Task: inverse folding
């Protein structure tokens, strides 16, 4: 039997896999539920569903942190379990993995090793810079287009890329993602109202309120723990508090976008001024984010349906037309990486 081909976008929040044989994209949360610290109880979406809900002996862990693999063995197990659940590994399978650019070579190599040294026994593993895949999935022909700016607002990172004619001109990975916004919200609620809320509750508040427009006097009642009485309770959290918690992080992202545009060579910059920013990643769904970015950068901002799938859609495109797009991919076994092996 001929081997299959997979495209992998391993995010902090979600793992997305493109299966070429079935021409299907599937997505699972990047989480593992452990029972008694020893047994794997559940993986993926099922594990995430237990987060902050399951009894004490079940702990949900997240193998990725800020866009890089923090727990290699857990991540390898998770990926193996997800691929296994669909079908048995074939020995001759090929993989294309999207990796962040602005990380150390060792961190990048970990993505490669994850797949290369897994039980999958891949026939080949190739790498593509995630910013390129993202732009392709956004519907841009990255090989011919001059001057593209992609801002991927994800769960654990914000990745900014300037691309031109098939290459990465500038790239920066900020360690700011949805979960950092949520922690900031939870911390401010705790400090201002002596009220403890979980990460999921903070996420719900962020999604409901968004970052721009909407009335400024709305509030949502959420469950948590009153830190003065120590008992579970319900409390109102106002939109202004949630917005205040997110303000500093948003401003940091905008500063980074501006700085990157300033550093962009003029001939590339003119293309960006015309087309604006391509906004991708799950946080691009956040109400008001594109308006906020447009107002604060003065550039047009484009987004699309299911922006969190842009990178994996890009992988799909590369794998469906390899003759044309293979020049965007490379292998980490190449001479350049000999010193790492
Ligand atoms: N409809 C929505 N409204 C607001 N936020 C959303 C929405 N959908 C997803 N998100 C947020 O998007 C984030 C996940 O984005 P994404 O799936 O792009 O992350 P990732 O690719 O796994 O992580 P990273 O690329 O940072 O490693 C989460 O924080 C989630 O709360
Ligand atoms: Mg991502």
Result:
């Amino acid at each position: 039997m001929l081997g299959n081909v997979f495209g992998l976008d391993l995010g902090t929040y979600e793992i997305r896999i493109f299966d070429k044989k079935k021409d299907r994209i599937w997505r699972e949360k990047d989480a593992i539920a452990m029972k008694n610290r020893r047994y794997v109880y559940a993986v993926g979406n099922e594990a995430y569903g237990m987060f902050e809900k399951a009894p004490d002996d079940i702990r949900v862990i997240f193998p990725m942190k800020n866009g890089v693999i923090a727990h290699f063995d857990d991540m390898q197990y998770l990926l193996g379990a997800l691929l296994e659940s669909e079908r048995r590994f074939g020995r001759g399978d090929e993989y294309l993995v999207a990796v962040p650019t602005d990380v150390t070579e060792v961190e990048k190599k970990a993505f490669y090793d994850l797949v290369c040294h897994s039980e999958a026994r891949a026939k080949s593993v190739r790498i593509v810079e995630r910013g390129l895949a993202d732009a392709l999935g956004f519907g841009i022909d990255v090989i011919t287009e001059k001057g593209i700016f992609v801002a991927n607002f994800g769960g654990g990172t914000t990745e900014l890329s300037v691309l031109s004619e098939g290459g990465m001109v500038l790239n920066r990975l900020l360690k700011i993602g949805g979960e950092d916004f949520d922690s900031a919200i939870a911390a401010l609620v705790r400090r201002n109202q002596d009220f403890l809320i979980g990460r999921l509750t903070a996420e719900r508040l962020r999604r409901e309120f968004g970052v721009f427009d909407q009335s400024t006097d709305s509030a949502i009642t959420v469950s948590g723990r009153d830190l003065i009485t120590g008992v579970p309770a319900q409390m109102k959290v106002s939109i202004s508090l949630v917005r205040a918690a997110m303000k500093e992080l948003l401003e940091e992202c905008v500063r980074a976008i501006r700085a990157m545009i300033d550093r962009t060579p003029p001939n590339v910059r003119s293309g960006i001024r015309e087309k604006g920013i391509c906004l991708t990643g799950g946080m691009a769904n956040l109400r008001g984010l594109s308006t906020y970015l447009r107002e604060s950068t003065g550039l047009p901002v484009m987004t699309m349906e299911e922006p969190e799938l842009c990178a994996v859609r890009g992988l799909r495109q590369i794998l469906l037309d390899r003759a044309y797009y293979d020049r965007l991919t490379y292998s980490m076994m190449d001479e350049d990486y000999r010193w790492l092996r």
